[in-house]
Amino acid sequence: MDASATQDRLHYMDHLRALAMLAGVFFHAALAYSPLMHDFWPLADRQSSAWVDVAAWGLHLVRMPLFFLVAGFFAAWILGRRGGMALARQRVRRILLPFLVAWPLVWWSLSASTDWALANVQHPSPLLEMVRAWMLLPDRPRMPPGTAHLWFLYYLLLFAVLHWVARTLELGRLGRWLLDRHPAWVLLGLPLLLAPALATVSAPHPAPEGLLPQFWALVFYGAFFALGTQVHARPDWLQRARPFAPWLFAGCVLLYLVFLWRLRVELPGSETPTASWPVAALEALLSVWLTVSCLLAGQRLLNRPNPVMRYLAQSAYWTYLLHLPLLFAIQYLLMDLELHWPLKFALASAGTLALCLLSYQLLVRHTPLRRFVG
Predict the structure, then answer these.
(1) How many domains does the chain have?
(2) Among 354, 365, 353, 371, CA closest to 25
(3) Centroid of chain to Cα 243
(4) What range does the domain containing 49 cover?
């Protein structure tokens, strides 16, 4: 990619965004059949498979870091082409307004489907059983509000402010200096920054859904957002990092096998509320190396027009907003059915994706909503 390429459409960035969106649908659908999440996920099914954990946690380690890196890249792209005021207007129109509108609707829909499940599901998950018992308490406390899966938008708003502060203080010079060095400075130095933050939360790291910003999430996801802005400023960095691609791939395979083994040893729970330093280091290395590997693979394999991928990229925002409420409704309906888990997983993920794309085609693609969530 040369410097002028950033002025044209970057197909591989769009396509990576589409693939990250698809990964989100499949990841959330897979959690119902994850042995590791059986006691913590409201949609947990009676059936589970260790193979789900083998696939799911790799997606978990790269999906959101890739989203934030792409978001940071395009924030810098808009800033460079249109200026700060255009970026601020775009953040309000594309992030703040959709968040304010979608938040109560998502909260209501998730609550409504869970209330239905509490009253009707005959084979509830352990978490649903716990909620049923909690609902019977006469003086139960009110549940604190959360952002559900919209925490991504919430943190993008925070990063918009931090991005403005960094530009005002000219902190980008530090990032440009770092990317001008040997690529190993990022590939090894960034995980060193992220490991202490990941050591403050459980492994796999949770979604920061609370309204109070969490320091670990600001550091972890903010680092990828910042890396995206700097990749835009130094478009030759990916080419200089490309010789490391085979080593990154081999390292990811080896470290991921170790990570899965450590998850079996350090099961999340009250006895292990935070990740050990070795596990935090593994998460940090894998998140950085997998994300950079996706960028390198995407630039080589996806940097060309593709109508299907472009359509998925255009619908990615709408799919992101809608997929979790739909998935909750569908998987609650599937919990009592005597079907093998791969079929349930296929029905849930395909049904969710189909409804998201159909509603995008009917409600968004050719309507004014496209300016906000298209």
Answers:
(1) 1
(2) 353
(3) 27
(4) 3-121+148-373
